[in-house]
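TL;DR need structure tokens for one chain.
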Amino acid sequence: MNGNPDAALRYERAEAFVEAVEALWDSWDDDAVVLDRAAGRYVDTSRIHHPNIAGPHLKVAGALTTPRPPQGHPVLVQAGSSDHGRVFAARHAEAIFTAQQRIEDAQAFYRDVKSRAFDLGRNPDHIKILPGLSPFIGGTEEEARRLEREFNELTIPAFGLMQLKDFAYVDLDDLDLDTPVPIEAFGDAGDVTNNKKSRTQVYADIVRREKPTLRQLLHKLAGARGHRVVAGTPEQIADTMADWFHNRAADGFNVMPPFLPGGFDVFAETVVPILRRRGLFREGYEGTTLREHLGLPRPGKP
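>> reply
TL;DR here they are.
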């Protein structure tokens, strides 16, 4: 095959892959390991099952060579908000990394994925939706915005144009940096009802709403690549996160500091204590696995 397969085929392959790895993770019962030293027996072979999967994309015959993982299954994290991605996420995902610019868009995505999961017989609370958030934090709002401007001025337009091609398949090399970006450049993603290519759609929505110049668009996408960028005081950042959480736009956030390690340090030292005081962030871990930290149940055997 030349080039990348289309979205339908990619997700068809993904379905086959998830089916196979889940069968392999479940190929050992939790109590298969007996460790009977006296009898010289490590495992009860009757508690090991041999999945037999033969399809157009992969073939699996036989069990894993290791016991079932401590989490039952590793947490399945999905990224992508296209129509194909939403169907796949509703069926399989336990955490979703998504790019959402506005709370109303995030709420619509949240409702859509959780309702799809419910229709498939899943508990919607067992899917954690985690939008990306890139915070510029300052002692005052002006200080935070000045920091954002300073970082934007450090960006290299040629690199931003390359990213635009890589993420959205849009070539704007011939457009002057201070010329407004034409929505037509995004093809069918310029149609507000289109949701075939999730990241392209995010970029197109920004252009449609804000009518930025190319320079402004590249600045907006430079660090977060389409995820939400916020600039403000620690209280303002915490307010934004609380607003999205309480209004069912997010179950949590994938924090994407604009610079490391300092950006993360500032977030941990100034925003996290505020979230803790509001009862929105844990004081300590109650479990030992990522699944427990996310409040997800351990998958049982099928």
